[in-house]
Structure of RDD family protein:
Amino acid sequence: MSVQPGWYVDPADTETRRYWDGEGWLGAPIPVDATPPDGPPPPEPVTPPEPPTPPTSGQTSPGPVAPGWPPHQGPQPGPQPGYGPPPGHGPGWGPQAGPPGWGPQGGPPGWAPPGDQSAGTPPAGQPGWAPPAGQPGWAPPAGHPGWAIRPPEPRPHGLRLAGYGRRLAARLIDLALLLALNVVVNGWFVWRWAQEWAPYWQELFRRAARGDTSAEGLPVPGEQAGSLLVVILLIATALWLAFEVPAMAAGGQTVGKRVMRIRAVPMAADQPLGFGRALSRWSTLGLPTLLWYCAGIGLVLQFVDSLSPLWDHPLRQALHDKRAQTVVVEVPYRPASAPSNDRDQPPGDTP
């Protein structure tokens, strides 16, 4: 999901705001406490380059000539060292010449007058004209084709986005705790389900040891095997719901997220998720557990959801984050003795 265009606090300088057009920053920053205008900022005026100084008589290597500066049009009064008509020209010679080594119409080497297409570039001030690349301070205008600018990483509510490694570690911690709960609550049902399937697997392994690959005459699991599997999945889903939703609704953190110092927050404001948003977020990832019964389709859906932050930019949202409109951010470390200061964060959100 992309960030909507608007005025946001600049992550690089929290004392200013800038306009985000959905792909990059646009225009000059304004003070963070100033009222931003409606819509994008007006285009910045283009300052024309300062014309260089024409060469003087004492210069041996003249610099660039400003457009519109009159070049030498012929011999000047008085002696000019190295200046004169080319061989073979008689009296009356004048325009279109200059000192040896100078360009057309008396300009310095490589110079072309305004409107002369021999230089290969349009005159200064004409559409498409730009100072040559490589000059000090030169840069293509904003939005220029090929001007690749990587926008800064979004910081929702002034907090850094959580990396995938920390999110994965938090999820594995939670799954380990859920597995321990299932051993206690769901263990008897799992043992009974395994007993229903035991004759089938034992006979299959005995035939495999003899090299027999036939499937005829294999014991059939009992009628209770399917019912036990449904009960096991229902209990596992209920345990996951009770483990995650209340904790996420209150503080945006499960046990694993607390250990890894990350939490989920709404995109709209830095506040608790609430039960409805927490339930919507969990259901996208947790309810497919019931579909494990259908050839493991639920497990595939959960696997894709878990990997989705790897290719989502710029907010690194999983599919369950997109449904609940949440993002996962890092919890800044604050020493216990350090008093909290709400003035550290300027008003307004960053994209």
